[in-house]
Amino acid sequence: MRITPIPLLFLLAAACVPVLCGREEQPVLQPNASIETRSRFAGLDDVRLLANGLLQLGQSLREFVQKTKGQINDIFQKLNIFDRSFYQLSVLASEIKEEEEELKKTTVVLKANNEEIKGMSAEISSKVDSILQEKGSLQNKLDGLEQKLSSLSHGLVTSEQAAEIHDLREVIQTQEQSITELLKAVREQSDQLNHQRLKIKILEEKFSANTLTQETINRIPEIFNSEAPTLTPYLTSSSTKIINLPPDCSELFNRGERVSGVYAIRPNGTEPFMAFCDMSKDHGATVIQRRRDGSVNFDQTWEKYENGFGDFQGEFWLGLKKIHSLATQGNSVLHIQFEDWKQGRRYIEYRFNLNGPESNYTIHLTHLSGDLADPMSNHTGMMFSTKDRDNDNHWDSNCAHIYTGGWWFNACGDGNLNGRYFQMRPKGRSERRRGIQWRLGQKFYSLKLSQISVHPEVSPSMSSSTSGSSEAGVFQ
Fold first, then answer.
1. pLDDT tens, 242-262?
2. Which residues in 251-402 belong to E strands, given as ranges?
3. How confident is the model at residue 87 (pLDDT cuts 50, 70, 90)?
4. How many C-alpha atoms does 140 have within 13 Å on its Cβ side?
5. Would you call 432 exposed, middle or buried from its count of C-beta atoms within 10 A (0-12, 13-18, 19+)?
6. Measuring CA to CA, which of 80, 159, 254, 447 is 20 to 30 A from 233?
7. Maximum CA pair distance of the chain?
8. Structural contact between residues 406 and 400, judged by C-beta atoms closer than 8 angstroms
9. Is the pLDDT of residue 457 over 80?
10. How far is CA 426 from the centre of its chain?
């Protein structure tokens, strides 16, 4: 058989390549070896089972991570609330401590005065005793002279004896006058001692009150967790209890209440409702608005602003219906106080009246006092506006929608305490006007805290005494 040259060349090349390259021939795989190699890999069912388990494990880990993220967010929110509460409690505790130090100093001064008065009283008592003894000796001398006069009654009294008797009588009268003045001085000292004791008693009561306040601070977490007061006890009780409800917080103050908090009131015999009473001044005031931390959204509808919303323990709006019932009692004062982002606190007061729902709660203001400019003069006579009920004088836009929050807008005015709450002072003018803002001169100031309250107009003497402490109880 003839072999062609080309296949023969390929055979020779295949045979000589391993020799020329210096490589050993690869061993031929035996059948048993291929079986062992294939056994090193898992079966398809095992792989699927393992993959399914890994998928389930990944899903469980994902759900666990999501749940953990939610729990962490809740913890952060609670920590933020706790931080704010702890800061407020720290400020309150420091104020109480400062007041306690002042009371201690006053007590030391009063005790020193008390000791000095006691010494003076003992000295006066010793002088009175000596005067009484001298009076007794003079009385004995007078008795002896009277006996001499009686023995000489049958004869004439000499001029020397008469002069001696006259001198003795003048001495006795002088001593009696001195004794009277000393007794008067003793009474005055006794009155001063009683006054000092009364002051010390008042200081002791203040110390007791501070102790009670400290206990209240320790119980604040319990108070936060307790339920807010409601009208249920009044609605389920007799009509006498409802009739006896005060018309406002000022009447509660006159009845002896001195603790700021939530009470039931009934203005002008209307339906009773709960309100926050500020008792920190020399009169009670019904708080109708408070802003302090942005926890409540004030960009609400007409219905919400009419009926009220928020939380008495934080931020709230009392409601136009209730504010109207307070204003109809007459002689009402609107007290506005706020704090800017530089911790500057100011206030302003207006004589105040509010029409009913038939006129969309038109407001009437007359400036009375305060340390603020009066931008609200631009708002008097205006109806209340919200984002869903436009009653302002801006013909081509809705101020409540632009600047957020219901208010007595004009076009759009120079003040809005129901605007958006910013957690820090905004830089831009337009942003400041969308927040809780008040115009001072040519500038619009974005505010950090605000409180609006209503109380009856007080006498000039009381208003002068309270003007110095008009901001003492702000943002409670």
1. 668 999 999 999 999 999 999
2. 261-265, 273-278, 285-291, 309-310, 316-317, 332-340, 345-354, 363-370
3. confident
4. 5
5. buried
6. 254
7. 208
8. yes
9. yes
10. 24
Helix axes 44-151, 159-218, angle to 10 degrees: 170
For 2-69, the DSSP string reads: PPPHHHHHHHHHHHHHHHHHT-PPPPPPPHHHHHHHHTTSPPHHHHHHHHHHHHHHHHHHHHHHHHHH
The whole-number average pLDDT for the span 157-183 is 78
- Which residue stretches of 39-158 are H helix? 44-151
Separation between Cα atoms, residue 335 and residue 328, nearest integer Å:
16
The first and second tokens of residue 198, run together, are 């009364």
Q: What number of other Cβ atoms are within 10 A of residue 56's Cβ?
A: 10
| Of residues 299 and 80, more confidently modeled | 299
pTM, two decimals, is 0.52
pLDDT digits (tens, 9 = 90+) for 20-67: 444 444 444 444 444 444 556 667 888 888 889 899 998 999 899 988
**Token pair 């836009």 is at which residue?**
397
Q: How far apart are CA 339 and CA 291, in angstroms?
A: 10
Q: Is the peptide bond before 412 cis (omega within 30 degrees of 0)?
A: yes
- 290, 337 in Cβ contact below 8 A? no
Contacts of 385 (CB under 8 A, 6+ apart): 391, 392, 398, 399, 400, 406, 407, 408, 409
The closest of 418, 350, 337, 430 to 385, measured between CA atoms, is: 418
Domains of the chain are 87-222 (1.10.287), 236-467 (3.90.215.10)
CA distance 250 to 254: 6
| Residues 157, 162, 167: CA angle, nearest 5 degrees | 160
Tokens of 41: 């890999």
- Please name the residues in contact with 257: beta carbons below 8 A apart, sequence gap of 6 or more: 263, 277, 279, 284
Tokens of 468: 């110095």
